[in-house]
Each structure stands twice: as C-alpha cells, then as structure tokens.
Design brief:
mainly alpha, 10 helices, flat, TatC, membrane, translocation, Sec-independent protein translocase protein TatC, transmembrane
C-alpha cells in the first residue's frame, strides 16, 4: 500500500465539496468541452474540402496516371453530410487537448499528489500513441491496402464488362476513419497495460508468460480491424507485438520503482 502523507491528506480534505458543487463543476467542464468541440467543428467544417482532399491523397496517388478517375455521391445530401462528418472528426481532434484538460481539471482535485504524478504521463502518452497509430495508417498501411483493393478491377473483354472502382465519398471517409480509430485505439496497448501494472492487476512476469496468447489475440484483432490482405494484417501485428514487448519493460520498471519505494519505507520504519 502506498503511504499517504499528511500534506496529501490535507490537500484532499481541502478539495472536498458537497455533491451539488461537484455536479456544478462537472457541468462547467462539460460545457467547456462542448464549446471547444463546437468551435473545432465550425473551423473544420469551413475547411472540410481541404481536409477531405488530404484524406483522399493516398487514393489519388494509387490512381495516379489513370485519367477520369473520381469519387461519386449518389444522394443529394450525401456530400453535405460527409462534410459534416469531416468537420466533426477533425473538430474532435482539434478540440481534444481542451477536452482532455477539462477532464484532468475535474479529476485531479480528487487524486493524491503522488497519484497525479503517476497518472499524468499516461494522459500525455495516450494522444501521442493515438497520433502514431493514425500516422501509421495514413502513411504505411493505407497506400498498400488501396492498391490491394484496386487490384480486383477488371478491364473486361469480349462478352465481359469492365469492373471499375468508383467509391462514394461517404464510404471512403467511413473506411479511412474506421482504420484511423482502430489503429489509434490498438496503439493504446502500452498505456492500458501500464495502468493495469500500476494498480497491480498484471505483472511483467504474467505478461511474459502470456506472450504466445497475446500474439494469437493480436493476430485475431488484426484480422478483424484490417483489410483482408496479408500486408495490412502484418502492418498491424508487427507494431502491436513490439508495443506489447515495450509494455513488459514498462510494467517491469513500475514494479522496480514500487519495490524501491517499499524498501525505503521499510527502512524508515
């Protein structure tokens, strides 16, 4: 058990408030978060076309040298609602620092000082890992996945019509953002395992002994979240296995620090 200092106790006592005050504080943080999201949405909806063009750049590159290729929409309102989804998606990314800060300002007063110090690195690492997963999708996996799917086009011939991919703007956006969210969330593996190690639910020895089962689970996860080609699956399996190994070392470092703190307390007693 972690020893709580008198200073920490006094700090927690000072932050205590009636339930109504907590609800008022929660409402304030939610309002600020929604205002940040609304502001991000308005800004990004205004620039929805450039943002969408950025997302379609891998597809344009995969179709380079093929004149006449384009995206389509089949409903009168489809492009408008796609722009709205682009604005919401990009606006959420833009407002995330503000939203995370509001969450932190609501939760932090209820934590001890040592708990705030322990939790803050995970709060900072989580968006960095999400961005790393999203960048991995955009720059590494997506170009190869698009080439794979475009490989199913046929030129046609005698008594056979050509088959050509004409993606809808909404379908392409859903496809790309689904991959970004899937990779961004799966790249949170070190944060999740480190937090579990911090509270003692998992240990480095447990993670090492479960390595083969973890690899099987990662493979199954890759089969679910990636397009059905071997490169896309490997492109998720390899970084997740590396992140799993990194998690083992992180949890081991947490255990060493915990043992050191326990030995210091024992020596003082």
């Amino acid at each position: 058990m972690t020893q709580i200092s008198d200073k920490d106790e006094a700090e927690i006592e000072a932050s205590k408030a009636p339930l109504l005050e907590h609800l008022i504080e929660l409402r304030k943080r939610i309002v600020y978060s929604l205002l940040a999201l609304l502001g991000g949405f308005v800004i990004c909806f205004t620039f929805a076309d450039p943002i969408y063009n950025f997302l379609t750049a891998p597809l344009a590159h995969a179709m380079a040298g093929q004149p006449g290729r384009h995206l389509i929409y089949t409903q009168v309102y489809e492009k408008f609602f796609t722009n709205a989804k682009v604005g919401l998606f990009a606006g959420l990314c833009l407002a995330f620092p503000v939203i995370a800060a509001q969450v932190w300002m609501f939760v932090a007063p209820g934590l001890y000082r040592h708990e705030r110090k322990a939790f803050l690195p995970f709060l900072l690492a989580s968006p960095a890992l999400f961005i790393a997963g999203a960048a991995f999708v955009y720059y590494v996996m997506l170009p190869y996945a698009l080439k794979f799917f475009l490989g199913f086009e046929t030129k046609g011939g005698k008594d056979a019509l050509p088959i050509e991919m004409m993606a809808k703007v909404s379908d392409y956006f859903d496809f790309v953002t689904s991959l970004i969210f899937a990779f961004g969330l799966t790249f949170q593996l070190p944060v999740a395992l480190a937090l579990l190690g911090r509270v003692g639910i998992v240990s480095s020895a447990m993670l090492r002994s479960s390595r083969r089962y973890a690899i099987v689970g990662i493979t199954a996860l890759a089969a679910i979240f990636t397009p059905p080609d071997i490169f896309s699956m490997i492109s998720l399996i390899v970084p997740l296995v590396i992140l799993y190994e990194v998690s083992i070392w992180i949890v081991r470092g947490i255990e060493k620090k915990r043992d050191q703190e326990y030995a210091e307390r024992e020596a003082e007693e």
